[in-house]
Write a structure and sequence with these properties.
120 residues; mainly beta; seven-stranded mixed β-sheet; 11 strands; globular
Length: 120
């Protein structure tokens, strides 16, 4: 059974940092690309960052470029999202996704999310 379990969310003041983790199990972790999405009430789900299966390529939404860093450790079956210089508008439920399908770039597996709240 595939599981993606996010952790590391919380409440932080603007300008602060958080590090999210996503622990994966039940599939061949190193064979799949992964991503972080976020969802805010009343807004569409937004792709935040994605990373290749080997971890050698990544891409980011313009809104987080230069502030967020996505990484993965294939020896620990875990991906991470380091979030620095957080803004109020980064407040959202952050979701981990794995195994993209092409060409639609939808993801096969999803976690339940971890809440990030940034206050001014």
């Amino acid at each position: 059974q595939v599981q993606l379990v996010e952790s590391g969310g919380g409440s932080v003041q603007a300008g602060g940092s958080l590090r999210l983790s996503c622990a994966a199990s039940g599939y061949a972790f190193s064979s799949c690309g992964m991503a972080w999405y976020r969802q805010s009430p009343g807004k569409e789900r937004e792709l935040v960052a994605l990373i290749s299966s080997a971890g050698d390529t990544s891409d980011y939404a313009d809104s987080v470029k230069g502030r967020f860093t996505i990484t993965r450790d294939n020896t620990k079956n875990t991906q991470y999202l380091q979030m620095n210089r957080l803004k109020v508008e980064d407040t959202a439920l952050y979701l981990c996704a794995a195994c993209p399908r092409f060409p639609s770039l939808t993801y096969e597996y999803w976690g339940r999310g971890t809440q990030v709240t940034v206050s001014s």
